[in-house]
Design a protein that fits this description.
The protein is built from 19 helices and eight strands. With 491 residues, the chain is α+β, with helices and mostly antiparallel strands.
């Protein structure tokens, strides 16, 4: 979009979400503009879906999530924030308006507290999502270094690329601790300081109950737990330490107490949990093979729809930290392949529905690159049956990759976030790059073909084909509450 179009899109969205006084917060992920609202009932969902550039609207409690697609959302969001800021420079609102806003805030808080588990998952995702760009960049650099080493090209550059690609992962616990404290209301640098204990080489000299720790033991899960404990200690200190001593006592206790607990407890517990996750993932695919892959690939789209996929982010990160790659992501990426195949079938089956075909044309490139939300919320989920057949395509692709894992061709992604074709540069496996790429490509092809065939033959009733091809019905909005907070694509 041009700057004028970005601002026009933002200007069109603002009144349809209740105006600037109804905006509590503004943020965005890879595809969605996320607007925290004081009163969700003021949003005109139907009109929002008709705004040029809007691919779909997802309701998530007091949050309105507007699907704009990758690239566009990063350009529209600053314009939207600017419009809200400009509007708020106007004179103060009336007392009646303030009272109404307070009542709306109370109702919104009740709505949020009604789903504590989902809220907790969203906050955990907020810890890890900001790390994704670094994971992607460093993963690609590490892969490039490995390729040069295998080919014997520019040997002097290989150590430099290895250092650049691995430096972030060596200190990822610090960033997790920093983000955790920031997300849960503590001082970010103190969360990072506590988490830094985990990766400090000197922990090898600590004798904890007759055992010596290993630097990095516990990984990101230990860092997450340590930073959460630091937030609790800091809050306790802020309430009880006199103001005159706060600047000295609070930071000291916030680092000391969780630091000791981390060294003499959390690193052992988190280390055992992390090792268990790695062992379980390896055994799941080594023994479950096609069945495990089918289940994972088939259920991932519903998990995304419900927002439960966020629980996988720490697991992916732990596997990357342990093995250098996550074996789960390529399998979960097959859900996107099934979605692409289903969308192509919808395109072929509805030759006279220009509106829906235009949506598919605009969303398909993003789908091929692993960003499936425009297709989910703009095509398959509103239609119903094609969403189910897309899951069938994902299950077939997952079974294909799971089978090869069982046969000994184990591979995964060195970063989280990308999917689809965008995952190719991040793949790494035990059987060489050529075999790894071939198996992943075979999985994508299986997902595409199965999703297409399942949707083409079973994705529509006769009445649906009649209605959708005559223009009597173009799209039905998804049922309220079916949206999910994102994530990076993550598959």
């Amino acid at each position: 979009m041009s700057p004028d179009k970005n601002r026009a899109t933002a200007a069109a969205i603002l009144p349809l979400v209740g105006g600037p006084d109804n905006i509590g917060s503004v943020a965005h992920c890879m595809t969605r503009l996320r607007i925290g609202l004081h009163d969700r009932s003021l949003v005109d969902d139907t009109a929002l879906r008709g705004v040029p550039g809007v691919l779909g609207v997802v309701e998530d409690g007091a949050t309105c999530q507007i699907v704009l697609g990758p690239g566009a959302v990063a350009r529209v969001t600053p314009e939207f924030e600017a419009l809200v800021a400009e509007a708020r420079t106007a004179p103060a609102v009336t007392a009646e308006a303030l009272a109404a806003r307070g009542a709306a805030l109370k109702d919104a808080r009740k709505a949020r507290n009604a789903t504590p588990f989902k809220l907790f998952l969203r906050r955990i995702a907020n810890v890890f999502v900001p790390l994704i760009p670094a994971l992607i960049g460093c993963g690609i650099i590490a892969g490039l270094g490995g390729l040069l080493a295998n080919l014997g090209w520019v040997p002097a550059l290989v150590p430099a690329l290895a250092a650049i690609g691995s430096g972030f992962m060596a200190l990822i616990a610090v960033f997790v601790g920093h983000n955790t404290a920031k997300e849960f209301g503590g001082t970010p640098v103190l969360g990072g300081a506590v988490a830094a204990v985990i990766v400090f080489p000197g922990v090898a000299k600590v004798d904890a109950f007759g055992q010596h720790l290993a630097p990095g033991q516990g990984g990101v899960l230990g860092a997450l737990a340590a930073a959460l404990l630091a937030v609790r200690v800091e809050r306790w200190c802020r309430r009880r330490v006199p103001e005159a001593l706060d600047v000295l006592v609070t930071p000291t206790l916030t680092v000391l107490v969780p630091g000791l607990v981390t060294l003499y407890g959390l690193m052992f517990v988190a280390g055992a949990v992390s090792a268990g996750i790695g062992t379980f993932a390896d055994r799941l695919l080594a023994t479950g093979g096609a069945v495990a892959g089918m289940v994972l690939g088939g259920l991932f789209l519903p998990l995304v729809m419900l927002g439960l996929h966020q629980a996988l982010i720490p697991i992916h990160t732990t596997l990357i930290e342990q093995n250098g790659y996550t074996v789960l992501l390529p399998i979960l990426a097959m859900a996107g392949a099934g979605q692409v195949g289903a969308a192509l079938a919808v395109y072929c089956r509805l030759p006279r529905n220009g509106s829906l075909r235009a949506t598919i044309r605009s969303a398909l490139p993003a789908g091929l690159l692993g960003v499936g939300e425009p297709l989910i919320y703009g095509v398959s989920l509103p239609l119903g049956r094609p969403f189910v057949t897309a899951c069938v395509g994902g299950a077939a692709g997952g079974a294909f990759i799971g089978l090869f894992n069982q046969l000994g061709v184990a591979f995964g992604s060195t970063a989280i976030g990308p999917s689809g074709w965008a995952l190719f540069p991040l793949l790494e496996g035990t059987e060489g790059m050529a075999t790894t790429l071939a198996v992943y490509a075979g999985g994508l092809l299986t997902g595409y073909v199965t999703g297409f065939l399942a949707t083409y033959f079973f994705g529509f009733t006769r009445q649906m084909l009649t209605d959708l091809n005559t223009g009597a019905v173009t799209q039905q909005p998804p049922a309220p509450g079916t949206g999910a907070a994102q994530e990076p694509a993550l598959a």
